[in-house]
TrEMBL record:
Residues 7-122, 135-253 form the VOC domain. InterPro entries: Anthracycline_SecMetBiosynth (IPR052164), Glyas_Bleomycin-R_OHBP_Dase (IPR029068), Glyas_Fos-R_dOase_dom (IPR004360), VOC_core (IPR037523). Gene3D superfamilies: 2,3-Dihydroxybiphenyl 1,2-Dioxygenase, domain 1. It comes from Microvirga thermotolerans. This is VOC family protein. It comes from the Bacteria. Pfam families: Glyoxalase.
Length: 257
């Protein structure tokens, strides 16, 4: 895999009902789903336009109490070294560095605020386009809601070389600080909303028609939590929950009336 150290290279939905989730995201984002060989049981691939953008796996009885949700894989040069560095920096390791034959090596970790993610070194040829801001159906934005913005920015910058970019004031909610990688804004870090969801990453997937996608969320058993709301750049966002309760975002234009 030719992605840089610190690139987002994969997104994974962990859900209690893979069949229902596949139907839901197919209706909302237009993803096709296919089965994949996996030593860990039922694993499926979300794809669009001939490109793979993410995975779908069952939480299962082996993970009691785990909430459905989306996690990201960040590409690194050295999984073992990065996992050890994360622990030294106050994070935690939940799944040790593990090989997936024909795919790569990964570890499941969490940052010092307890927010989980994966690090991965892929061995497949080509470049991951899971994060591609110019393609509908791919992730366009990675948003971290945390209990300590400054500590989170320091942690991720030290690991992946991300930089803090411009910031937008959000009143009592503090600031919305952009995350920049290789000169390109890839997301942002913000304070967790009081009484809102637990600290977590939220991933925004691009759609061609934000109003149509929001209607598809509601029409297929999901919940629109926020939006459509306009954001800088003349596009609109929606924050939603799928029928199993996994939070995700959508971003895209409004179709001319």
């Amino acid at each position: 895999m030719t992605n840089r150290h610190g690139d987002f290279v994969w997104y994974e939905l962990q859900t209690a009902d893979p069949d229902a989730a596949a139907r839901f995201y197919g209706a909302v984002i237009g993803w096709q789903t296919r089965a994949a060989e996996s030593p860990h049981g039922d694993y499926r691939i979300f794809g669009t336009g001939g490109a793979d953008v993410g995975g779908l796996t069952s939480i299962g009885a082996q993970c009691p109490g785990m909430r459905p949700g989306w996690l990201a894989y960040v590409g690194v040069r050295d999984v073992d070294g990065t996992a050890a560095e994360i622990v030294r920096a106050g994070g935690a390791q939940h799944v040790p560095p593990t090989d997936i034959p024909g795919v790569g090596r990964f570890a499941m970790v969490s940052d010092p605020q307890g927010i989980p993610f994966y690090v991965m070194h892929g061995t497949v040829e080509g470049t991951s386009l899971a994060f591609a801001q110019d393609r509908f159906g791919h992730c366009h934005w990675n948003e971290l809601a945390t209990t300590d913005r400054a500590a989170a920015l320091s942690f991720y910058s030290g690991l992946f070389g991300w930089e803090g970019g411009d910031a937008m004031p959000m009143g009592e909610m503090g600031e919305y600080r952009f995350l920049v990688h290789g000169g390109v804004p890839i997301g942002a870090v913000m304070d967790r909303i009081p009484d809102g969801p637990p600290p977590s990453w939220t991933f925004y997937f691009g759609v061609a028609d934000i109003d149509g996608a929001a209607q598809a969320v509601a029409g297929n058993g999901g919940t629109v939590c926020h939006g459509p709301a306009e954001v800088p750049g003349g596009v609109f966002i929606v924050v939603a929950a799928d029928p199993q309760g996994a939070l995700f975002g959508l971003v895209g234009p409004r179709r001319p009336s």
